[in-house]
Design brief:
Strands 6-5-4-10-11 form a five-stranded mixed beta sheet, with helices on one face. Strands 1-3-2 form a three-stranded antiparallel beta sheet, covered by helices on one side. The chain contains six helices and eleven strands. The model has no long low-confidence stretch (mean pLDDT 89). By secondary structure, it is an alpha/beta fold. The radius of gyration is 23 Å and the shape is elongated. Helix 2 (92-103) runs parallel beside helix 5. The chain has helices at residues 17-28, 92-103, 120-129, 165-173, 193-206, 261-269, and strands at 2-9, 35-46, 53-62, 84-88, 107-111, 210-212, 215-223, 226-234, 244-248, 252-255, 282-284.
Length: 290
């Protein structure tokens, strides 16, 4: 049997599964021998009064074991040889767009003007230590985007934008603690987030997609009213891409973030309509496969 309860307890009582179980035995009259597992579903802290309480929603398994993982796993298919779409930017918007494309059976080609999440640490360190700013690798540009080194907090300003559970589950699937599914204010942590971002990139590559760093989009190729691809400059010596070249695809997702002003200048100069979106300034250019 499975039972769910909303309980309000002291922090020390919420510290472990054992202490939560002891509270349930006393408060709900459950036989301690029947409790096989307690799973916390939601957790928030009420610190408005002198005495601090923890509000929990718990699922109690009585005489049976949990049959599923703590997070919902997304299945990503192999998309080698499938229809391709270019994703410009490897911040949160770009990474999640690439993963979503894979779910839809589309092969993503991700280009990021900055460096990978681990290498860009060195450039960020130089900003504070030597006052040197690499214009293409800094707090704004690079894998993981502007939030990669701002302590890993996850939040949304409005619940009207839809259910965020899918996003949190994808983070967990790639190594984030399952506590982010529970806490009212989820927090991955700066020490853990780079590994999670790298795991997301590895999923994209494992499924047949491409991810290119130090590869800056300089032009969008358009014939008539149809997108044909992008023109780029690549400074990554380890990349198989040419230093200057073109990547062709019939769809482009611009997930460039608010700091890529050169992209917005190009769009404005070429009379391409710009509309602000809720998620990471993502723009869909014509011909995105349905």
């Amino acid at each position: 049997m499975i039972q769910e309860y909303q309980i309000r307890i002291l922090p020390e009582q919420a510290a472990s599964e054992e202490s939560i179980s002891r509270f349930l035995v006393t408060d709900k009259g459950i036989n301690p021998k029947d409790i096989t597992h307690v799973r916390v579903l939601k957790r928030s802290i009420d610190a408005r009064q002198r005495t601090i309480y923890v509000n929990l929603k718990v699922r109690v398994y009585l005489n049976e074991q949990p049959e599923d993982e703590e997070f919902i796993r997304t299945e990503y298919q192999n998309v080698e040889g499938h229809t391709e779409a270019i994703v410009v930017g490897a911040g949160p918007g770009g990474l999640f767009a690439a993963l979503r494309l894979i779910e839809l059976g589309i092969r993503p080609i991700v280009v990021e003007r900055g460096k990978d999440v681990h290498t860009r640490r060195k450039d960020i360190a130089k900003i504070s230590r030597e006052h040197l700013v690499n214009p293409e690798s800094n707090y704004s540009f690079g894998e993981g985007g502007a939030g990669a080194f701002s302590d890993g907090k996850l939040y949304t300003r409005s619940k009207k934008r839809g259910n965020v559970d899918k996003i949190l589950n994808v983070f967990c699937q790639h190594g984030a603690s399952t506590s982010i599914l529970i806490d009212a204010h989820p927090h991955i942590g700066t020490d853990k987030l780079p590994r999670v971002i790298e795991a997301m990139r590895n999923t994209i590559i494992r499924c047949g997609g491409e991810v290119h760093f130090q590869t800056k989009m300089t032009d969008i190729l358009i014939e008539g009213e149809k997108v044909k691809g992008i023109r780029y400059e690549c400074s990554d010596e380890s990349s198989h891409l040419q230093k200057n070249g073109e990547i062709h695809a019939s769809a482009i997702i611009l997930a460039t973030g608010h700091s890529a002003r050169d992209v917005y200048r190009w769009l404005h100069a070429n009379n391409i309509e710009i509309e602000a979106k809720d998620l990471g300034n993502i723009f869909l250019l014509p011909n995105i496969p349905s």
